[in-house]
Amino acid sequence: MSRAVIYETFGGPEVLELREVPEPHAGPGEVRVRVTAAGLNPMDWGIASNPQAAAQFGITVPSGFGYDLAGVVDEVGSGTTGFAVGDRVYGGAMGRAVADFAVVDTHAGAAEMLWHTPDGISDEVAATLPVAGMTAAAALAAIDLRSGDTLLIGGAAGGVGVFAVQLAKLAGARVLGTASEGTFEFLRGFGAEPLTYGPGLADRVRALAPEGVSAATDLFGTETAETALALCVPPERIATIAAGPTPPGGVRAVGGFDASPDAMARITDAILAGTITVPIAAIFPIEKIRDAVTQQADRHVHGKIVVIL
Ligand SMILES: NC(=O)c1ccc[n+]([C@@H]2O[C@H](COP(=O)([O-])OP(=O)(O)OC[C@H]3O[C@@H](n4cnc5c(N)ncnc54)[C@H](OP(=O)(O)O)[C@@H]3O)[C@@H](O)[C@H]2O)c1
After folding, report:
1. How does pLDDT run across 277-291, given as a tens digit for each residue?
2. What global pTM score does this model have?
3. C-alpha of residue 135 to centroid of ligand 1, in Å
């Protein structure tokens, strides 16, 4: 037997239970990961609380919980290539990550991701990277971010934001990022110029960047995308990751799976070089999964939340 976070009905953190479950095993083309750390994302509780969102990912109850994970391969299915028992890995397992063991499909083209964890990157940090890192990279690539751009990021201090800000600075952009006032120093620490979200955003952007912004990425709804449109940023230079499939005014809807295959290596190389740091806002033991999800669902996390096993 092994432990897994399970929910039998859709709902808030209170539906999450830590249960003893039979150990899963790796089938053909799969590996089993002994999970040591799982990173949380809004989609985890979004899926667990909303049957329609769950259905989009093929999830029905009872279900396991979480996507991002890191750990060690401890079982390799027949025909699996590229992974061996003992390899340190990180990646994603849809609805199965917060568990002692997670089976990951490594077939080419599978909707799950698995990479080898570079020496020098801890499992806690590796577990923060798959969804947030890939989505940040995709959101910047979609708007063709380049050196000299002035970029407006909405929701710049969250899980995706901390990667987007740092990747944009590395690319040579000036970065304006929205947050609440208490978060300003946190964002300045990453080289971003903070401004508050909410009504009047366009005026605050004009005051901070009178010469205008050249690109924008919205990591929280549509306010930043709409503001950028109002500031005459061309729609093809505006991306949103959180507006659903039909964003306003022809701006680009982007997801983590749109990232280029080399995006993750660029991020891990930068972490190893010390040019990207991963702020971990809190680490919870698996027994405290409800507290971890409650903090995540509050939507004022600065960086990432990690659950350890
Ligand atoms: N399409 C995809 O593939 C994909 C992938 C990943 C994430 N997402 C979505 O993208 C969104 C961001 O994900 P995340 O992991 O970065 O979320 P997160 O970590 O929960 O974001 C938290 C941040 O949001 C900020 N925030 C709170 N209210 C805000 C508002 N009204 N306007 C702007 N910012 C606000 C907070 O700043 P303060 O604390 O300063 O208020 C906080 O730093 C989520 O909706 C998620 O579901 C989509």
Report:
1. 999 999 999 999 999
2. 0.98
3. 12
